[in-house]
């Protein structure tokens, strides 16, 4: 299903908020509007931070350990501090959603007065045609043949004295409900167009069309609500695209767990795991001491937008 397209307000072209390596968006600050006449940068994606590979660590933080640390396979991954809600814009009709809130159901608007006062039209059922004796007997024989313990001799020999038709209506009741929820969603910003509030007021939750693929089938469709996107710096890595490796604590090397850092295991036999060095390269950061930020995926900036979830 194609996502509905909303054109920007007249006179307000889409702003393509591109940026170059080394100039990330300031932490917690919305991306500023471009100066008049600035060329579009839609074809210039943001470079992704890449770790270096080698025996020398590239991490130079003050929390780098002076000695090799033990290899810790269960070390906790870095976490991001919560984002200040005041850094995100507020939109009319979307309440006071917080970045950490779960999806909030949005009730549909009340139906129009004409819809509420419409009365169902009476239904006329056609009269049953006269059913003859032979047809009645054959219908009864067909029913008996479908039963395992019924005999047909009584039906064949009985005398039918009268036939009284009775009409009945059979119907199947099925419900088809739709629920719409909204929440703030964050994704790494890789460059390209940012459809923000400078393009106008976002449409209402129930003004966004959603055509189901099939009636009476469960379905969940996600939409980015137009004109709600905003850019912020990554609050996990501080706009640098990487974090200190949690396995080696930034040292790039870890103490060999096989020989406990001695370089030999049994007597003078050199440890085959670290080649007698007593330490080895960290498998997670490949000796760099840094790992790519899990939140921004190394792009330094984040794109926040209100996501609409349509559940059928």
Can you describe this structure?
- The protein has three helices and twelve strands.
- With 312 residues, it is mostly beta strands.
- It has helices at residues 113-117, 133-145, 153-157, and strands at residues 15-16, 69-70, 104-106, 179-188, 193-194, 220-224, 230-233, 242-244, 253-255, 279-281, 290-292, 301-311.
- Mean pLDDT is 77; it is low at 1-43.
- The two termini are 14 Å apart.
- Strands 3, 4, 6, 7 and 12 form a five-stranded antiparallel β-sheet that branches. Strands 2-9-10 form a three-stranded mixed β-sheet, with no helix packed on it. The chain has a two-stranded antiparallel ribbon with strand order 1-5.
Average residue pLDDT: 77
Shape summary = elongated
- Ranges with pLDDT <50 over ≥5 residues? 1-43
Q: How would a crystallographer describe the biggest sheet?
A: 5 strands, antiparallel
List the helices and strands and how they pair.
Layout lengths: L14 E2 L52 E2 L33 E3 L6 H5 L15 H13 L7 H5 L21 E10 L4 E2 L25 E5 L5 E4 L8 E3 L8 E3 L23 E3 L8 E3 L8 E11 L1
Parallel strand pairs: 2-9
Antiparallel strand pairs: 1-5, 3-4, 4-12, 6-12, 7-12, 8-11, 9-10
Question: What are its keywords?
Answer:
312 residues; mainly beta; three-stranded mixed sheet; disordered N terminus
